[in-house]
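Let us work through a complete example step by step.
Step 1: write down the sequence.
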Amino acid sequence: MNLRRVISIMIALMFIISAVSAVKPARVRPLPGQTHCPVDLNRDGFYEDMNGDRHVTTLDVQLFFQWIEWILRYEPARAFDYNRNGRVGFADVVGFYNEVY
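Step 2: predict the structure and record it as tokens.
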């Protein structure tokens, strides 16, 4: 194998590894007053089921809105950054609502 081939294979592997790590599940905690952790039901990297009951309802949207400050402090941003701007804010609650309904 020549050097160019080895380098191109290594670059391809780096892209594959970065793509796989980008969808790696985030570690989340239960929201205050909830027993179960939020759940990423469709495994897209975003946590839709805020109360962990395996169903997405308006309660999940309400919990997201109610605990957004807590989420900012204690949860990984990428799990709740629905508008993909690198931070969690009110626009993500709106994005979450639009995705769900």
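Step 3: interpret the result. The chain has a mean pLDDT of 87.
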